[in-house]
Fold each of these.
Amino acid sequence: MSVFEPDSSALQTAPSRPRFRRSAVATAEVVSFFVDGRAYEGRQEDTVASAMLASGLTPFSISTLSGRGKTVFCGMGSCFECLVTIDGTPNRQACLTPLLEGMRIERRPTP
Amino acid sequence: MTSFGPSNTPVSLDIPAVKAIVIGAGPAGMSAAARLAEAGVSTMIVDEQAEPGGQIYRSVTTAVRHRQADTDALGASYRHGDALVRRLAASKAIVWCRTQVWNVTRDRDIWVARGGVSYHLRPDVVVIAGGAMERPWPLPGWTLDGVTTAGALQLLLKASGVVPASPPVLAGSGPLLLLLARQLVSVGVGVRAILDTTPRRAAALALARHPGALLGRGLCYLAAGASLVLAIRRAGIPWFRDVSDISISGVESVERVSFRSGGHAQEIETDLIALHQGIISSQPLARLAECAFRWEMLQQHFVPKLDENLESTTPGIFIAGDAAAIVGAEASELQGEIAALGALRRLGLIEDAAHRSGRAPLLRALTAELRIRPFLDAAFASKAEFTAPADEVVVCRCENVTAGQIRAELASGFTDINAIKASLRCGMGPCQGRTCSPIVAGLIARETSRDPATIGTFQSRPPIKPLLISEAVNVRTNVPADRTLIKT
């Protein structure tokens, strides 16, 4: 375990002004999911990453090494920057994981 | 969206004895798998995404059905992917999505993780069609929240219809950057500015040097490029040329980007910037399979040595599409067919004459497709300084290793890329060096005045993607007894 405890307060605040939005009138089904215990709405065609971005939930984690916030960088499963805990399993790639109804996502410090 | 993926119930152990495995369900992989299955070969295609399409046709089946406006903005070439997915679905190929390949040996032993367990497969032939990634481009501030890539913005649009809330800054060079600009305009987002690092007369010089770009399908691509430029001009996007010295800054996340253009220092406020510096093939799988590589000067990257059937130096392992060298979607689809024919010949399922007559029209079409590539590679060439950032710039994003730390190692005599990896942990984070390997290699080449060809890359080691313990210990074996067709 690292002795350095990063300031994870950035992960606990309410959603900031979203950098992302939906492109057009959504036709797909609404999917409810939870991030750090709070409920949000996504769409059926969301990945965990796109649902979090559209809900203004960045950063996804705080690096214990650098203290910086991490979020989606490559979007295609190559960079591993978007790791989150999904339904209790840590270090899942948000950009590769389809969003499912009732999913519980946790943001936390990662290496 | 999950129709091709694992279900929540345990996956059946009774997978047929597959003779051919295709890795990657983009244009090359889909055409290879369809062709093999259509010829009666027991074929499986695996991909880590939720549905077939690769990055170029990402989520095309869902998008075409549910998101007309987005599909229109993405253009007819995107829609073409839907036909290819339907061809694959109509074939007898087993399609495993949400499946990660974590090891491939030179003897074609393959391990894949799916639904929480792993499968060990031993096919007679393998087609690696793992595609490409964006060329990493380390800049001051590129690790800030709010810095992303052109590829990521395009994939968010393709896969989920999620777009920037306000016009982003696009920075770098290459066709994808300009294509994304037009797509963002089409979906009503717009672009704050393009910071184009392409030298001003690069396109004209490249065309003069590679006039073959006017032949074959080259003219179509040049015309498409010209209409792209026109669309960006019409949209009135501020388009800064000859851009250099890009620096991104902000406290918690991106607030502004500064740069030089036309001899003047400039600054733009933004909360979102997408970087792009062309694409390079993704090679960990071919390296695990011990395929031999050579340095390709024009693409500034290694490419595997392939014969005209696209078979690598490891017998029975074929490499098609952008996984070998960047050729684009249409050429990738043709290469998938060519690799499949080569694999059929390898399996002894077609005669030499039938192989040659089947391959000839594909090779002719491929030649026509590839006419444009030398021009594109030259016009949007990567510059050596892109992999030589200032000392304070982070090179390894996972382990937070800076260019200065690598220069210090070089100065103390460590010049081997894998020695630097071991001493600094650079490339040992979750991405396993996918992002920083080309940067570290470029930095070593520049600082030691060595030919990039001699530097090599980080060693690929299994598992090439992080695994759950359950995926490492629960390995289901499906090894056919009659796997004797190819002797190595």
Amino acid sequence: MIIHDNQHLVQPIDCRTAVQRLWDYLDEELDAERYAEVTAHVESCRACAQHYDFARAFLDALSAAQPMASETGVLKSRVVAALRAEGFGQG
Amino acid sequence: MSFSKERDMIFDREALDCLPAVARFARSLTRNAAAADDLVQETFLLAYRGYDSFQQGADVKRWLFSICHHAWIRIAQREQRMVLAADDDCDAELETYAAVHGHAAAQRAGLDGFITSIDVAPAIAAAIDMLPSVYRTATLLVDVEGMSYDEAANVAGVPVGTIRSRLFRARRLLQEQLLEHARDAGIGIAMNHTSQDKQ
């Protein structure tokens, strides 16, 4: 069966293929055709949808765990002083 | 205005503006505040010396990350703190399957909801710190800094396939580490009790 979405004819894929494409899909590294195939599969497969939801939450948690930029004022002063020794700001 | 003065003003505005991001990246690479500061200084000195070769309009942050990463590898190799080879035998596809199997096991143990149910940021930061350097770099560039595989490969100076397999292994290792953390903290038991209480 071929499913038709707005832009693409979508070939059905199995769970194995959907799982194989998990990270590439969430990182938006798939081409449009493969992306649409995964979207169609996940919309109709509860088990895969759960894996995708978990992986998405995991990636959200990873990016939210980004360390806060610490106070870099002192470091910037040190870097600028080192750059001045190279002629920075003296043109 | 002289050419060099204008060049320095652009360097100040474009490159030095990225110092907090470079400092964060350097801190993650070195896991040591003093070493990170040294690495940041080295990065900006190298960048300043090579600024004439930087193509205006290109991504300055990515360029600085690349300089920072290469400087770190050079320093670490000089100090013999790092072995770069022999850990690229991971298979991206197998790593993805392993991550999904890990999720299935977490589901069975009632642990899968923990990622959204508690503040896992400190546990994630600790888990990232424990990763071997090549995997830490991959997840920092893609998951924390939001780079594409291609951009991250460029910064790390490795093929796209390598950054992809390193990234997938990093995620699998992090996932295992976090699930272990949840298990140790008795989170699965607590969550099961909470869900039973609601019924």
